[in-house]
Amino acid sequence: MVLEIDRQAIPSAQRGEWEYAARAGSITAYSWGDAIGTGNANCIGCGSLWDGKETSAVGSFKPNEFALYDMAGNVWEWVEDCSHDTYDGAPVDGAAWTSGDCTRRVVRGGSWLDSPQYLRSAARNAIPADDRLNILGFRIARTLAP
Questions:
Q1: Is 27 helix (H, G, I), strand (E, B) or coil?
Q2: Residue 19 in contact with residue 79, Cβ under 8 Å?
């Protein structure tokens, strides 16, 4: 998925980029540890004011170690990759996987309407590319020149 902003094509994050950003150097289920805890994200059972009710304002929870907010919960985030049942055959160079079932796109991060298991850094889902729902959002990624 590519957005056009000020006549510049800006891609959404790729699956590998998204997971790297969500983990923020951790090897645990969530960037803050292996348990969902209380008040770390917006989901059903996350212990926030918005659980199962609605989205929360960006920045309502602490950022991860990369200073990124809301990588877990609130809304599923579209990534550039097309849907596949497994990672067999996935690009190993970090490139987006733009072949396969591109009528469905990968989303990551879980939402306010999901249980904690869907907020794990490794969790993913696939949604029809033309769906517009209040559990979906996006995060843009831009490659900066060195």
A1: coil
A2: no
Cα 81 to its chain centre, rounded Å, is 12
Q: Residues near 117 by Cβ (< 8 Å), separated by ≥ 6?
A: 123
pTM, to two decimals: 0.87
Residue that has been written with the tokens 């990624």 in this structure = 141
Spatial contact of 15 and 92, defined as CB atoms under 8 Å apart: no
Could you tell me where the DSSP H helices lie in 7-50? 15-23
* Tens digits of residue pLDDT in 48-104: 999 999 999 999 999 999 999 999 999 999 999 999 999 899 988 878 899 989 999
Q: Which residue has the tokens 């800006």?
A: 10
**Residue 103 DSSP symbol:** E
Helix (H, G, I), strand (E, B) or coil at 119: helix
